[in-house]
């Protein structure tokens, strides 16, 4: 008969497993496991099997193992995980793409009834329509102020009703009514709260960012740095081109207002002395344009000649 391991042996085995995972994986998803059953958790493990490992446990044990492992290896980046171990959470160690793993975890959600005392994670709205209940059940609807009518011997809800608001606790009347209607309004599964990647911790919303979003945010940051640098006259790589252009404009303005000149200002002074050069520069006449003008005038003359002949014809009468 096999001897059952003691609690101390289980703790030692758990500590070794967690330390092994910390050495092997550099990407970890911290997920909340509220209202997740063992069968559901087993299905999640099967779905992630291959490049990911789900590890659950007591927060105190996980924190202790992480601290000892950080002291042993000298990798203090693991200490960033400790503040995240609050509540009923688990760790998902993965070597795959973080976004794909997060989306895979979100697939394993199971519908659940509204139990008394639960805090509603979403708004619960009862849709209008026939409930299939006999008229003796109208007391439930009256208590909850739900407008109904009797249609063909059954209770029918007239308009949609917001039965429970997000964040409110489910009462006994609401739970009984939803159970009679066969409505399972809530769904539960592992919910990713934070992401750990090589010592960095960030929100899972970051995984939804595309390359276009990153480029847009980077451009906005560069623009802010440029504006600040120009405002305080502090040279930076982003503001340098604008500073050189502004300096050139200032020197050019001095050269135009005085006798001082330099090669880049000579051409500007030349244009200012003879403004007609601006028109020549902006509207050059090409040979094709010059040849097209006479051709167009000839076509206009040809078009006008038939018009004159038609006018003469219209001047005669059929009886002349």
Automatic annotation (TrEMBL):
UniProt protein name: 60S acidic ribosomal protein P0
Subunit structure: P0 forms a pentameric complex by interaction with dimers of P1 and P2.
Annotated Gene Ontology cellular component terms: cytosolic large ribosomal subunit
Domain Large ribosomal subunit protein uL10-like insertion: 114-183
GO molecular function, one term: structural constituent of ribosome
Ranges where the record places region Disordered: 286-320
Pfam families referenced in this protein's UniProt entry, alphabetically: Ribosomal_60s, Ribosomal_L10, RL10P_insert
Protein's organism: Vitis rotundifolia
Coiled coil (UniProt feature): none
A biological-process GO annotation: ribosomal large subunit assembly
UniProt superkingdom: Eukaryota
The protein's role, per its UniProt record: Ribosomal protein P0 is the functional equivalent of E.coli protein L10.
Keywords: Ribonucleoprotein, Ribosomal protein
Biased composition annotated in UniProt, kind: Low complexity: 286-296
Similarity section: Belongs to the universal ribosomal protein uL10 family.
